[in-house]
Amino acid sequence: MARSRRGLAASRLVARRRLAAVAAVVLTASGGMTLRAGSAPAAAAPRLKTAAHARGAAHLGVPGTADVAYAGSLEYLEEKVVGPAFHRATGAAYEGRGAGSKALSAEISSGEISPNVFESVGSGPITALEPRYTRWYVQFAASPLVLAYNPSSAYAPALEAIAAHRRPLADLFHVMSEPGFTLGRTDPNVDPQGAAFVEMVELAQRALHLPPSTVRAVLGTGPLGSSSSPEIFDETALEPRLEAGQLDAASAFLSQAVQLHLHYVALPPTIDLGAPGEAARYARATLRLADGKVVHGEPLVLDLTTIGHRDPAAAAAFVAYTISPRGLAAYRHGGYTTLRPTVAGDRRLVPAGVASELSAR
User: Can you give the pTM of this predicted structure?
Assistant: First the structure.
């Protein structure tokens, strides 16, 4: 899995071609949408300025800009669907940037970035900013883990048979343990998906009665919470590498697989970390991160809050739009399981527009 110049060039070429091939997102009058083509995120631009921002449109309604820092897995949905639809619905401008949720939280805390909205996978990256930057958040969707795979991989026939239930799920972990199998995943220290993938393998080893050696066979012999494994890549570069043929398979959210039209193996709710009702089971998986902190498995839910005091009307309007029926419909079409929006923290500090949307449920 060495980074050759040719491999990197192939990855960049695939990313450029996919971005160029993005088709229109068709929004119906009722707020539904049809995704006519997938798009992979390019390797991590820190901020994406859309046409909505370039035009500016404060005169149409809500003033200011919603500057949204979001989990990298949300890049397609935010930039191609939700951001433009929010601008059309409210008149507020939109900017976005995607990265691992924990990395974004650290950048906000250090003052390196100053968004006014933060959308995280899991509540931990948000609560780490309390009470200085926020004291509340709203939970509204969940997305399970899947294993995405390259259909041209030598292992694709086996993975396809497992996905179609012609072979048992236990075989998935045997395939991933093959010496020549190349797996991609994200850094568990900066991205909740990276931690969740390790926890998923631990849960599967117990649930499927696999040998204890399975976890190491799949994830390598180094510390499970390390950032230095050759399997680890930036979240926004993982799928382009997969499609370039540099990886046989990669960790992904179901929502990513749906939006980017990836081949994937679905996992049962008992191990996919996508079912809030399985929280107690997920918590049995533990992982020690590079800083010594021990984390437990938890449902992969989306949490959203406003940050700081810049353009508060636009920030609150973005949160309210996201949890509105139109916003939630976009997430459902994008492969998420939408939940009844629920506030955690100090409800008295929830902006009026967000509180009004919540009370309409």
Answer: 0.75
